Structure prediction request, 639 residues.
Amino acid sequence: MKDEQRESSAEAMAPAKAEGGSAGKSTRRPSSGGKLGQVLLASGLITEEQLEKALKKQEGSGRRLGEVLVEMGCATEEDIAKALGQQLGVPHVWLRKGLVDPKVVPLIPLDRAELYHVVAMFKVRDILTVAMSDPQSLFVIDQLASITGCKIQPVLCRAEDVAAFTQEYYGKQVDVDEFLSSLDQTDVEVVADATMASLAELEEMADGSPIINLVNFMVLNAIKDEASDIHIEPDRNRMRVRYRIDGMLREVMSHKMDLHPAVISRVKVMANLDIGERRRPQEGRIRVVAEGREIDLRVSSLPTITGEKIVMRVLDQNRGIVPLEKLGLAAGSAEAFVEMIGQPYGLILVTGPTGSGKTTTLYSAINLISSLEKNIITIEDPVEYQLNLINQVQVNERMDLSFANVLRHVLRQDPDVVMVGEIRDRETAEIAIQAALTGHLVISTLHTNDSCGAVTRLVDMGIEPYLVASAMTGVVAQRLVRRICTQCRTTFIPPASLLQQVGWPDAKPLTMSVGTGCKACFDSGYKGRQGIYEMLRVDTSMRNLILTNPTLDQLREERNKSDLPSLKDSGFALVRKGETTIEEVMRSVFVEGGSDIPPEDAGESGDEAQSGSPPAGSDAPPDVEAQALLTSETVVSLG
Prediction:
């Protein structure tokens, strides 16, 4: 056809012809050949008559053949794009946020991106995939290879889309958090009514690169934000993703429900779970390498009425094993704890609610006393961190490996130190007590409000007071309080009514710190967490008291005679240092009565000490708001 010789790939979508250069640094496939019109005819998308009319209409107009065909209604933009990609022998993509990695975009400088009409999409090893309006330009491909040091994989994209993404990603500082939150429901295409999708469809969807990228972003962002847990949960119409950061859940993204089955299936594939089983809970483990270190993800699935909920516990080896000196123990408490774990035998308990950092304290203690001369065995459910020189056993109730059964067999392994993840029942408690009485050092945890509660809990389980008194060496009670963000820290003078309400021991005016909220702390005013501790040292007087089967109040009264701070005292000490707030201490600690710490100078109060309000320019809560924070909830806590 004579007229058809006027058309070319440049006339259809990309104006530039191939320039000189070598393709040695490109992974581009050779062109499939053929005119655009011939490709459309061969695909059956248009007829010869329609092509003739389009060529006549194009003549003299300077417009592209693809545009004319779309305007005539003979083909869609998608048809033209696919045909042009087939003609040029390169893949075609519709640019969207889910396909572009914000961290990769800056590999190509802005001036070059605008000059060549390109945008970097993502990088796999040394291959950089680049969206181009003219993927046949060998000169541009060679230039990009030289600039980035990568092999270039060109993909065809509309020039308008490249220009739009160039403006969006270079026009402002790209933030990965904002990128995740801005992913739109149309970014990933899934089958209609995905909740009823077949197993084969779910496998195909889970293996799709957009789903893989999305799950990878969830995990990487959680690691970057130092989240302890990732929650992927279904709602009636939406899939919600939340991170637990510093003990608080924060929503980071939300998508339409159609995306949920594919995301859940992808996580199950990574954790080697059965993606076809949606009615029973499952547990698994994923090991990933991120930012140059290994991260373990403990995966748990739970069927709900709206679909499966997935929770991934993020276990970072670098963060999980904390040296004892960095736990935040006060000087006297640290010495007492080191003395406890240095004993050759006895029972040491760490108490607190779920999420209060008990496991971290156990690992720190075990890591401190670990040596080639000691046989240390741990019984855990589950094993969170793997330690050198430690024999770690995973509890498995289905295999009859309960804490009690495993502990019974461990005592036949000639152990020096035994760590029991948790004493849950009388049987486990009895075996642990007997082990402590027969020359073993036993370290374990209990769920109690304070250190003295551990004694009464064991007695309530049926352990005789004389056995508790003989076996117990000491108890550590702990909580985690959030630290004030250093990026938005400010100071204020607390009102006297607030200090009186919390039982603050010093009546003098003082300056306290508070976080006003910023991007670094997700506008919460807090960043990171700090432990507060209470020690119960079982000395002769305490041992004699335990023999009388005392009440909890009697135990607390005896403990308070020591020079070791209580949970409340430890929290107030951090408030004095400006590391946390009174509200956070009261949120995390069950308080009864006043504090026993002696009054101390809390620091400079300045001219503002005469006022009960925050200093000028401060966003700290005023008197009424501060009291409201305290009166809303006094018993707490997941710390």
